[in-house]
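Fold it.
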Amino acid sequence: MTNPSHRIGAAVVLAAASLIPPLALAQGDAAHSHAAAPTERAPATSASVAATTTAVEAAPEVNLRVTHVSRSIGVDGVERESRYTNRVFRRTAMVWTERELPEGLRKSLDHGHSHAHGPHAGHAHDEAQGAPLRVTRDRDGKETVEVVLAKTRRVIEVDRAHHGNVGYGGSWDAAYWLISPASLQRMERVGAPKGGVQRYTLTQSENRMLVEWDVAGQFPRKIERSDAHGTSFYQLTATRLAKPDPAPWEASRGYARGDYSDLLD
């Protein structure tokens, strides 16, 4: 008898396949990073929009702690490493992403120290950096991207031209599932699921990618990308969190609303 979660997972992959280019990881290393740039989207047909809507509504709620680690060696011989963690809460047709601040930085900010730099230090631009991001999608495929500014009690709707400035890479699938499910269809399935996890691999030239996909939860527990020479490495790990009570977005219900131009001065 076919496991229902396997059928749902297959539906997700097929629904997204016509929309997303191979290995679309718009919010992999760049997830909620302010270097992210919006991706170009292929025109969506009404059938593909409806299929994606069905997949979105079938996805279970998840509460995740997602850590991104990147390492690289430049041509100058300098090794660079970055690490950050987001809390990601997926609800039907909505994903909320908030940065988990290191303890030292959190204490420093609690003491009123400013860590902003540049000519606009102290302006609303700074509060938007790393602020919680809420992305929603309606049944017709329209996405709404909002940054939530708790200190000034405002919700800022961000137009597409500025999505990259607030860390949204432009791929709904990569935000909602952490990796485009269509990417899995283009990878090699490694054996049968074990412990609720299906492994996928892909080798392209000298680059290798591994995904450990939680079949029931519909999210990757791990994504790894590396090159054959050890000069580039990226890893995403996702672990479950307890359901937050109250939900972090509840506080924003009474906030004033604005658009991205309010942050430009």
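The mean pLDDT is 83.
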